[in-house]
Amino acid sequence: MAASRLQQDLKKNPFDSPEQEANLNILRTNDRFENRIGRLLREYELTQSQYNMLRILSI
Questions:
Q1: What does the pLDDT look like over 3-20, one tens digit per residue?
Q2: What is d(CA 6, CA 48) in angstroms, rounded to the nearest whole number?
Q3: In what helix (H) or strand (E) does residue 7 lie, and over which residues does it extend?
Q4: What's the distance, Cα to Cα, between the start and end of the chain in Å?
Q5: At what angle do helices 18-42 and 48-57 cross, to 10 degrees?
Q6: Residue 56 burial (CB < 10 Å; 0-12/13-18/19+)?
Q7: What is the reported pLDDT for 59?
Q8: What is the pLDDT of residue 41?
Q9: How far apart are the C-alpha atoms of 1 and 7, rounded to whole Å?
Q10: What is the pLDDT of residues 13-39, one digit of tens each?
Q11: H helices within the chain, ranges in order?
Q12: Count helices and strands in the chain by DSSP H and E runs
């Protein structure tokens, strides 16, 4: 079986369990989203907390 992208990136083959690999994939995906959102919000000089407050207040 070919190594997954995560296994290649982390140079870990194989993971201790499929659950461990899935959890790490979720954490990495979340990190990428947060980085992209952070870059977008910086253009407007906002933090994620400030954006969330504005979003809550607009409802």
A1: 787 777 777 667 788 898
A2: 27
A3: helix 5-10
A4: 49
A5: 80
A6: exposed
A7: 72
A8: 96
A9: 12
A10: 677 888 988 898 899 999 999 999 999
A11: 5-10, 18-42, 48-57
A12: 3, 0
Residue 39 in tokens:
């870059």
Dihedral in degrees, nearest 10, Cα atoms 41, 26, 4, 19:
170
Output the pLDDT for position 36: 96
Q: What is the spatial distance between Cα 7 and Cα 15, in angstroms, rounded to a whole number? A: 8
CA angle, corner 38, sides to 27 and 43, nearest 5? 165
Paired tokens of 37: 């959102």
Quick check: helix, strand or coil at residue 3? coil
